[in-house]
């Protein structure tokens, strides 16, 4: 049975990759497995999240940032905000709540720090 939208399955394991690119060509897609050569890996986070709980991260890096997340077990969602360090399923600016790999592109003009919740 699937978890409600905005809720992670019990003990969901998520892998979050932070990527940056000064130039992102319109033809490139963040949900593909290959990573364009001009991208730079910034950080990798792996952990477990309980059902109905959030893990909060703070992004200070400038420029356009692409967040890619793959739920290894369950189906975690990704929420991003430039105005709150603790975004949630009902308070966010950008989100990815797909059944499968999640990706969000954070524009360079977003005020830092950016709040990220998984």
From TrEMBL:
Keywords: Glycoprotein, Secreted, Signal. Its main location: secreted. It is found in: Secreted. It comes from the Eukaryota. It holds the Pfam family UPF0669. InterPro entries: UPF0669. Residues 1-30 form the signal peptide. May be involved in induction of apoptosis in CD4(+) T-cells, but not CD8(+) T-cells or hepatocytes. Belongs to the UPF0669 family. This is Uncharacterized protein. It comes from Saguinus oedipus.
């Amino acid at each position: 049975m699937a978890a409600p939208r905005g809720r992670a399955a019990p003990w969901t394991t998520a892998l979050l990759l932070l990527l940056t690119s000064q130039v992102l060509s319109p033809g490139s897609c963040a949900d593909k497995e290959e990573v364009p050569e001009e991208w730079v890996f910034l950080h990798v986070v792996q952990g477990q999240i309980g059902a109905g709980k959030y893990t909060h991260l703070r992004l200070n890096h400038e420029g356009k940032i692409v967040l890619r997340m793959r739920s290894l077990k369950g189906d975690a969602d990704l929420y991003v905000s430039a105005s709150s360090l603790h975004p949630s399923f009902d308070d966010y600016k950008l989100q990815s709540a797909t059944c499968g790999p999640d990706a969000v592109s954070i524009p360079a003009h977003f005020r830092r720090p950016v709040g990220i919740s998984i």
